[in-house]
């Protein structure tokens, strides 16, 4: 059975996911706007954003979804197990330019978006 990917560009979908995760409507709406902006910007650029990891650690990330940028930064490994880009529908997936691998974050743990870098 194939899992459908979440459309992180769709504000209503993101807001509903966040509300299901016990965020109140106002917080979910604010965070949905930030996630939409991050996702849409990552399609063409590099975005610097922060989120809280499961361990509680704050992660400073530089990510993109742009295939041209990913191709320039791709690091092939002997065991490329985390480079398959497997998308979990309720997680926010991105290509991490520092780690040179696909990463994901829980949408409710995204804290901020600081900078956008135009790389194309």
What is the topological layout?
Elements: H1 11-20, H2 25-42, E1 46-52, E2 58-64, H3 67-73, E3 92-96, E4 101-105, E5 110-117
Antiparallel strand pairs: 1-2, 1-5, 2-3, 3-4
Helix pairs in contact: 1-2
What would your notes on this structure say?
By secondary structure, the chain is of the alpha+beta class. The chain has one domain (11-117). Helices cover 29% and strands 27% of the residues. It has helices at 11-20, 25-42, 67-73, and strands at 46-52, 58-64, 92-96, 101-105, 110-117. Strands 4-3-2-1-5 form a five-stranded antiparallel sheet. A hairpin with a 5-residue loop joins strand 1 (46-52) and strand 2 (58-64). The longest helix is centred in the N-terminal third of the chain and has 18 residues, at 25-42.
Q: Mind telling me the C-alpha Rg?
A: 14 Å
Order of helices and strands: HHEEHEEE
The percent range for helix content is: 25-40%
Strands in their spatial order, largest beta sheet: 4-3-2-1-5
- Largest sheet: number of strands, sense, barrel closure: 5 strands, antiparallel
What's the quick description here?
With 120 residues, this protein is an alpha+beta fold.
Name its key features.
120 residues, alpha+beta, five-stranded antiparallel beta sheet, 5 strands, globular
């Amino acid at each position: 059975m194939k899992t459908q990917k979440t459309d992180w560009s769709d504000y209503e979908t993101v807001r509903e996911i966040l509300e299901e995760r016990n965020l109140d409507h106002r917080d979910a709406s604010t965070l949905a706007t930030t996630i939409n902006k991050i996702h849409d910007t990552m399609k063409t650029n590099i975005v610097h954003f922060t989120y809280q990891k499961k361990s509680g650690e704050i992660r400073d990330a530089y990510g993109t979804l742009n295939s041209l940028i990913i191709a320039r930064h791709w690091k092939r490994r002997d065991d490329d197990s985390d480079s398959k880009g497997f998308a979990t529908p309720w997680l926010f997936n991105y290509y991490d330019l520092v780690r040179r691998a696909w990463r994901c974050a829980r949408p409710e743990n995204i804290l901020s978006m600081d900078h956008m870098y135009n790389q194309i």
